[in-house]
Structure formats: structure tokens, C-alpha cells
Amino acid sequence: MNADPAAPTADGGITDSPPPRFGVNYTPRVGWFHSWLDFDPGAVAADLDAIAALQLDHVRIFGLWPLLQPSRTLIRPAALSDLRTVVQLAAERGLEASVDVLQGHMSSFDFLPSWVTSWHRRELFTDPDVVGAQTELVEALGTALSDLDNFSGLTVGNETNQFAEPGHPDRQQVTPGQMGTWLQRMDAAAHRAAPSGRHQHSFDSRAWFDDASPVLWEHATAVGDATTVHSWVFTATDRLRDDPDPPLEALADYQVQLAAAVADAPGRPVWLQEIGAPPPWVPPDHAADFLAAAITPVLDTPQFDGVTWWCSHDVSPALADFPELEYSLGLIDSNGQVKPAGRRIAELAAEQRRNPTPRSPRRTAVKLSPVAADGTGRAANAPGNPVWQAWLELTRAGRSATLIRSDLARDENQLGRRGITEVIDPADIA
Amino acid sequence: MNADPAAPTADGGITDSPPPRFGVNYTPRVGWFHSWLDFDPGAVAADLDAIAALQLDHVRIFGLWPLLQPSRTLIRPAALSDLRTVVQLAAERGLEASVDVLQGHMSSFDFLPSWVTSWHRRELFTDPDVVGAQTELVEALGTALSDLDNFSGLTVGNETNQFAEPGHPDRQQVTPGQMGTWLQRMDAAAHRAAPSGRHQHSFDSRAWFDDASPVLWEHATAVGDATTVHSWVFTATDRLRDDPDPPLEALADYQVQLAAAVADAPGRPVWLQEIGAPPPWVPPDHAADFLAAAITPVLDTPQFDGVTWWCSHDVSPALADFPELEYSLGLIDSNGQVKPAGRRIAELAAEQRRNPTPRSPRRTAVKLSPVAADGTGRAANAPGNPVWQAWLELTRAGRSATLIRSDLARDENQLGRRGITEVIDPADIA
Predict the structure, then answer these.
(1) ipTM of the assembly?
(2) What residue of A is the nearest CA neighbor of B64?
């Protein structure tokens, strides 16, 4: 799993990438993630059969932290074994599997063990005892899975930044420096335990677009083996309020270009790890079209490594209290019927396997607004601002464009390796 | 289970009670309550064997709310079944079993399902959806257990008041009136589901002694079929700081007399549902003596129904983050060895079975300080205050005394039914 899918070719380009991966975030059909409490390999096998039938090649799997580590000093062997079983069941169906460790946050619900909440509340990212235990859990999972051929690697946790963002009800106080240290510790633990895995961390779009997020661009694009992108249109719609026809399907491509542009290493893979079609921003009968319209533009990107749709199975309406949008994000409904979006991704994946979109550097890059070392300036690069507008104008004109960091805009080596021949300053076309 | 153990005898007294019950709060030896996640009937059977060998006749059993009801609309059949299995295993060893439903709080840890925390935080006692779901869980557990002969009843939850007390990190806002309504709803649900059970609720000593507690005396002594007493000396030691030789072993008796005194119904049973010997207040090598010294004085009390020691098994030192005192409260250590306190309670229980202490009304009662309808005035009845001092002085002088509510101090019916012939006003002996 260590091959760099966007390694430079002999001419210095990065067009020699393998075909992109198509997969799905696995949300168990019966019982959602509560099903870990009643682990049923037969039910998992049936879910994975349905996923494999959609021509997908990988799944992203989520444990629940309180079930894996109910005491700071108790990592449950049965929980590790159950996760291993899911990865093995995936292997039997030709699916690669990555595993997120610290959940943490899932679909509006926070799952934290009792030893970090209430009377035991303490800092998730800096308390030495907490961090030590998290490290042990990452290592334990890595060790439990490292010998499985289809195990692709760990993600530290699903959008772990959420616990440290303004607005969280129990916000953790953490500086960007502390966050970087924490991410590096978790990443190092993953690599120690599973040296051949490709490990990464994940975060929501605040890391890209909110100046206050303690996950900086450098954390996003330098810690771990790939840069993850979670693309949710509802995070951009407020910013696009003034656009009469907001091009929501362009957000994923913009974020992927941004992830590619921000990295110091031109060849660092970008994994579109979460993208979904949330109502009402995407009407349910438009989900399949949205899926194709959002994914297709990304496919030429040399650094693009794969897409993992959110999610496999609709949340059952029998489970209460999810935000309304969460009930219909699946490729497969809660009765097991494939939905139009499921058929569409199957077609797209099969077509890309037969006839992959050529990887091709975008010659034109829009210059990003400068971002300071402390992360200030990120918001100026969010959808709705001049950088986005310039990039979108080019896109709408049929000129597929990428992005470039302002401090790299005259770096011949970077320009050369990314194949960029034209840099556009948004100020020049405003 | 509906027999009133302190029903008035023909002469209007209440001395015809059955022998008191001796039991223990069951804390699984391996994995503490996290063991629900790896439910092992064999391990439970071994624990219950050890408990039965201590001449005990009952256990109090605790579920964990997030495992019973991980979604507001998902009560796990397997969790109900596991609890039923524990009650059945207890039956096979001649042990009655009561079950606490809403944990809630255990030994400093709070266990709340994700649908009432963080982004989903809402009022535990008043939110209609939450209360509805709690009602369903109480009913489901009652229904699951009601046919078992040794199932004695439900407790709403372990010290549920803690979530509503000042100082809780996520304090729930609830008035005494709302708390009373909530308790009555839970009690009604228990009775609907298991009509022959004796059901109750529980609370820590703040309900008795803190004016701010939303659980009022009337809730303690009128909701449910018995009044529960949790007696922990550390709750009184601050108040007894000025006493050169604080009689910590007298606290349980004082609380039992208080519970008997506060009830409108003179015959309402009082269950000493929790009492333990916490270090450093009780030095470990004094635990057995403390046990005998604290329980023995209570045994003559007509309303006294039984005692349930906290707890069966020491928390393993392998489990981190418990307050230090919690590791050594067991009758049995974490390796399965019976401790001196275990032998002492076995002797006491066997002796009481052979030769029960006669139930005998205490003829002298100290008049309590008045308490207003809103609960104001309770603190004046806490240890260290004149009521306590007067009661203690009598006790130390060998004159076993009870307590009486100030508004009942001239109620001939109440005095007669409780067998009280002398009421002492603390002011008269101050």
C-alpha cells in the first residue's frame, strides 16, 4: 500500500496514476453502528455482498470508541476481533477495507467513553493519559489488522477536528500546534503497528475554509500518507447564497484541487473520503445525477486516489433523532433495495475500470489567497470568494482549472511537477 | 412481593416484620460493568456462587443505559436477555434480584446514550421524547423479568438525582415538582410492566440533607414501594469535622430512622440499599468492624427491610480512573478472595437468620427541624446539627432513639402506630 499513486513520471509529470478507487462508507443496514453491540457476521456479509454488487472496490469501516476502549486501560479483544472479521468478510468479496479508529463523531452523534466525559471530562487532544490510551488503541487496531492483505490502513478517526471546533457543546481547547502534535502521534502509532498500511486522518471542511480550525492546511496535507477530503455541500451553501444557480456539484472538484494545491509534495494522493447527496440541498430524485456530476470532474486529477461515497445503507427510519438528511444518504435503502445513486456509482465505477479517464494535469491554476502560518486567510479561499469565483468561471467556460498556493505560484519546480503552465490571479479577472 | 414487611400488628404496632434481607450490590469481578459488552454467563455464575457463599439472600443488579437503549427507539433484546440471564443465575443460587434501570451514574462514571449528550443534549427529566423512551425502557425491563420468581423489582436508576444536583458538570435543570412527576411516571411504568414487583427509586444523601436537591423528602418516602437509603460516610464527614471522634458508624442508623420518620405511612419499608466502608474515612483494616457496627443498630427498626452492601467485588486495579476509594469496597477482592468484611457480613446474616434481633419500636423520638414544602430546612437535619447531636447523645447514652417529623410530633395516630411515647425537642437539651 506504499506505492505513491501519483509518483512523478519520467518527464516530471504525475500522470501515471493507477485507476481511481470507488468505494463506500459502510453504514450497517440493520442497527446502524449500534450493531456492534449485537455483532452479526451474517448481516455484515449480506451488507458487503450488496456493496460488492455495486462494482465497488473498497469500504471504509468505523468502530465506536466506547465499545473498543470502555476503560482507559481496557481495549476489548472481542471488539478488535469483530473489526477484523468485517475486514475479512470484505476480503472475501474483493473489497479493500480501511478502518477509522476514534469515533468519536458519527452523523451528529458523539460517542465518547465515560472516562473522558462528565466527571471525568478532560482534554481529548492534550491530556497525557488520554493521548496515551488513544495511541494504544490505534496501535492495537493496527496490530490486529496488519496481516490482512485487503486492509489498506487506518484513519485516526472520523472528523476528529469536530471536537475542537468553535460551537461544539463540549469544545476541547487545543491550539493548532497541539493538534499537529496529536495527529503526528496518532499517525506514528498507526505506522508502528501496521507499517505497510496507508494511514491518514480526517476532518471536515472547516480545516480548509475556517480560519479558526485548529487543523491547519499543513496538517491536512503533510500528516499521514494521503490527504482526505470530506465534501458536503451544506457546508458551502451559506457561502453561495448570492449565486442564483449555486454549482454544488463543483464543490468536490474544488476541494480536491485545493488539497492537491496545498500539499508541499505534488504527488501526494488526495482521497475524496466522504461525499454525499444530502437533501434538501440535493433533492432525492437528483442524487444519482449529483453523484455523477460531482465525481466525474475529479477523475482527471493526477493526485486523485479514489472516492468513497457516503454512505452504503440508508439509516432506518426506525432509529430516532438523526438529522433528517441522514436518513436518505445511502446507495441502498434500509430494506436492502439499491437506489438510483447506487446504480449510477456502479456504472461509473465499471466504466472507469473499462475506460479510465486519462490523468492529465490541468495547465491553468488559480492562485489561492495567502494563508498565514496560524491558518488565518483560509476563509478567503472558501466557496463564494474571489478564488472560487475565478476558478468557477474557468470551469463554467469549459477550461478545467486547478489551484496553486500563492507562495508556490512562481516555484518552477512545483509548477513543472504539477504540469501547470498558466497561473491566474483572481484579482486580474475580478 | 407486595407484603408490607412493616404492616401494623393487631395492637397498632409495627413489630411483626419478617427478618431483614442481607444482600450485596453486584459488581462483576472481571471487567466491572463493562463486562456487559462481553457477557459471560459463566463468569456471572462464578461471581454469584461467591456471593451466595456469603450467606446473602439478594443482589442488586445494574444495567448500563447506553447498552440497553443505544438509540431512543432501540431497546436491545439481547441486553434484556442478558439481564434476565443474570436474574435467572441468581435464582439458581437462591438469590433474589432487583434491577436498576437507568445507569446513569456508577462509581463516578456517567453512562448516557449518545442521543442525550453533546449535540443531542436535552433534559433527562422533562424532555417528552426522553421521558417517553425512559418509560419504554422501564416497561421493557419489567416485562422481561416479571415472570421470574426471584425478581423482586426495579429501581428506576442508581442515584438518578445526581444528574440534577448543583455541581454536576452537565446539570439538568429540573424543579422538585418536575422531579416528582418524573419519578411517578417511572414508578407507574414499573408497576404496569411488573405488577407484583416491589419497585423504588434511589438517590444519594442530598435528598435527605441538602436544601437544593430536587428530590424532596416526599419523593423519597412516597414514590415507589419502599424508601431507599444510600449511606456513605464521606457525605457526612465534612459536617462532622468538629467532632473529635465522629461516630461514622451511626450515620446509617440515623438515615434509616430519618427515612422511617419522614414517611406519612408508618409502615413503609426502608431499604438500606447502599452502604460501604470507603477509605480513608474507614481504614481498610477496619472495614469489617465498621460493617457490623453500622448495620447492627438498625436491625431492631420495624420498618427496616434489608441491607445491601456496596459492593460484591473490588474493582480491579487494572481498570483506570476510578476514585481511589472505589477499588477496595468489595466483600471479595478482584482475585476472588473473600475479605474480612465478607466474612463478617456472612456471620451477621447467618446469625440474624438463626436469632433475629427483635423488631422493637424505639419509644423515644427526636423531633426533626421543620422542612418546608419546597425542601428548605433539610440541611438543618444533617449530621452535625442539633437534631443529629441530640439523637447522637441519646444513642451514646445507650438510649436507642428514632426521629419524628415536627408536624407529626403531636399526631397521636402516628405516635401510636410507630410506638413512640416520648418526643424530645433538640432545643430542650441543647
Answers:
(1) 0.95
(2) A114
